[in-house]
Amino acid sequence: MFSKACEYGIKASIFIALNSYENKRVSLKAIAKEINSPEAFTAKILQDLARHNIINSTKGAHGGFEIDKYAISSIKLSQIVNAIDGDSIYKGCGLGLHTCDEEHPCPVHDKFKAVRDELKHMLESTNLEELALDIKSGVAFLKT
Amino acid sequence: MFSKACEYGIKASIFIALNSYENKRVSLKAIAKEINSPEAFTAKILQDLARHNIINSTKGAHGGFEIDKYAISSIKLSQIVNAIDGDSIYKGCGLGLHTCDEEHPCPVHDKFKAVRDELKHMLESTNLEELALDIKSGVAFLKT
DNA sequence: TAGAAATAGGATAAAACTATCCGAATAATT
DNA sequence: AATTATTCGGATAGTTTTATCCTATTTCTA
């Protein structure tokens, strides 16, 4: 459903959020270890998220990544997905038609619409805070 | 959402079904033209669908592809998707965790489950016949 | 039976995605 | 000021997906 990059991006954001609540910056190394992802590849994704102002990065010794703790609850999953994978997951036609709308629909347009709308709603209504809290409480996990 | 191969596979199946109702076999060339796909690549996908017994292929002059007209209404979208993309779309974890279930869920497990279940239900409850009829009646389209 | 019209299938190429490497830049610490 | 820890960013490599090419095989038709 999502690209590998997007999966890493979401997991990394959750881990960064978790630490930001405790005012701790986390290093690339720590993130990659925690979410079980390749370091250099993860670095690219974090740079991307930083460019999109979803996370903040600080260079140099004692540097790393963090998220404004007061912004965590307002960051939606959709923003992360959008930053990394773009909006094709919402907007694209299920069968790849160049133009697919009510006027000129592909054969699965209506049926797909329901699924995509549910996905869209889910991504837009889920924020980083709730995901981070599930990790903190041990209800959910970031690896294995 | 689906691979390009899967998109072509679905569109090709619809077009073959449409012609099979009129007892017409269609050639690779005609299919690729109709669904606007690369010929040789489409050939591989059709071979795959034939191996999975979803369509029938006939070699030689006057050969081509067809579907048993009495089977069209019982062929589900899920069978086509499954033949080409496998079942990862149903089974895989949204965040790529190796094991992700009620016992050990990823942070988006529950939220994702709803979307995936809806997708699964949609694919399993949609058959080739209804899709083909929408094309026949001019309500839906296979290209542009 | 020869020739033409198709699909089958192996080999290869191109593009996109995933992953790695390394030097440059930056910031804290000593 | 030098050293160290760290992110940034360009270059490169590996893998998967998408696409193409060519020959073999099959089947119909004349």
From TrEMBL, chains A, B:
<dbReference type="Pfam" id="PF02082">
    <property type="entry name" value="Rrf2"/>
</dbReference>
<dbReference type="InterPro" id="IPR036388">
    <property type="entry name" value="WH-like_DNA-bd_sf"/>
</dbReference>
<dbReference type="GO" id="GO:0003700">
    <property type="term" value="F:DNA-binding transcription factor activity"/>
</dbReference>
<dbReference type="InterPro" id="IPR036390">
    <property type="entry name" value="WH_DNA-bd_sf"/>
</dbReference>
<protein>
    <submittedName>
        <fullName>Rrf2 family transcriptional regulator</fullName>
    </submittedName>
</protein>
<dbReference type="InterPro" id="IPR000944">
    <property type="entry name" value="Tscrpt_reg_Rrf2"/>
</dbReference>
<dbReference type="GO" id="GO:0005829">
    <property type="term" value="C:cytosol"/>
</dbReference>
